[in-house]
Amino acid sequence: MSLLKFSHGNAKLANRLIFNLPAGYACPAAGVCKTLVDRHTGKVNDNLALPHVGVADYRCFAAMAETRPNVRDARWYNWDLLKDAMYASYEGAESMADLIISSLMPHKEDLVRIHESGDFWTELYLMAWITVARKEPNRTFYAYTKSLNMWLNLASEIPNNLFLTASIGGLLDSLIAGRESIFIRRAYVVYTEEEAAAQGLEIDHDDSHCFGDKPFALLVHGSQRAGSAASKAISLRKKAGGFTGYNINKRKAKANVKI
Ligand code: SF4
């Protein structure tokens, strides 16, 4: 049986499994962030002229990794396998859940980030992860999502070991107003630390806020379009010696510091 591919942490996040799908393609509610990397050529298309929704304009943090063929192939492989499972049975969510559980089995990590890239692309697929979380009570699962309609429809089904955070900047942000008690955790992308402070938001650097009970901010980072406001904000931070991105060597160095 072919199994899905997980990665084991990255420059920002240690000690967890990360599951990815192709950025943008598997993100039905992506808004300002929408970035597509061509499956075959690796060419980046992030000039998609999507409607702006009144929040920071930035390029998907995870998409640029797909310019590397091995990353691109792994993400498309995962999506193809899931779709095969979904269409192979009338019980599409169950078949996908079975595939995910079998694929998790060889891994010991008890923390799983669903989607550093990609999102819940159908409600059946979100239901599959809900089923996985129920059947794997000793693991903790979490995801950022812009598929707020799916979250809303399945809110009563979500078990305690699956933590969702609303990722602001999508096409469905308007669903949040009046439903803050459901969308408790909301992540806002900001250009500067001052902007986060002005909004009363703490900045998250390690996904720890994904398990909290309040909105938070993420500082724009990654490779941004030349000349964009996001790119200029990163340059200014760099000049000021501030945060510019996540680096695996810095993380290792930090982990080795003895207190
Ligand atoms: S929804 Fe997330 S993964 Fe998809 S394009 Fe936007 S930032 Fe990237």
List keywords for this structure.
259 residues, alpha/beta, 7-stranded mixed beta sheet, two-stranded antiparallel sheet
What distance lies between the first and last C-alpha atoms, to the nearest angstrom?
46 Å
**Overall outline:** globular
* Mean pLDDT across every amino acid position: 89
> Roughly what percent helix?
25-40%
DSSP, total strands: 9
Pattern of helices and strands? EEEEHHEHEHEEHEHH
List the helices and strands and how they pair.
Elements: E1 6-8, E2 17-19, E3 36-37, E4 44-45, H1 69-87, H2 92-104, E5 111-114, H3 123-135, E6 140-145, H4 148-154, E7 162-167, E8 186-190, H5 193-198, E9 216-219, H6 229-239, H7 248-256
Parallel strand pairs: 2-5, 5-6, 6-7, 7-8, 8-9
Antiparallel strand pairs: 1-2, 3-4
Helix pairs in contact: 1-2, 2-3
Q: TL;DR?
A:
By secondary structure, the protein is an alpha/beta fold. It has helices at 69-87, 92-104, 123-135, 148-154, 193-198, 229-239, 248-256; strands at 6-8, 17-19, 36-37, 44-45, 111-114, 140-145, 162-167, 186-190, 216-219. Strands 1-2-5-6-7-8-9 form a 7-stranded mixed β-sheet. A two-stranded antiparallel ribbon has the order 3-4.
Describe the 3D structure.
The protein has 259 residues and is of the alpha/beta class. The protein has one domain (6-256). The chain contains seven helices and nine strands, in the order ββββααβαβαββαβαα. It has helices at 69-87, 92-104, 123-135, 148-154, 193-198, 229-239, 248-256; strands spanning 6-8, 17-19, 36-37, 44-45, 111-114, 140-145, 162-167, 186-190, 216-219. The protein has a seven-stranded mixed sheet with strand order 1-2-5-6-7-8-9. α2 packs across α3 (123-135). It is globular and about 55 Å long. Residues 250-259 have low confidence and may be disordered. Bound molecules: iron/sulfur cluster (SF4). Iron/sulfur cluster binds next to loops.
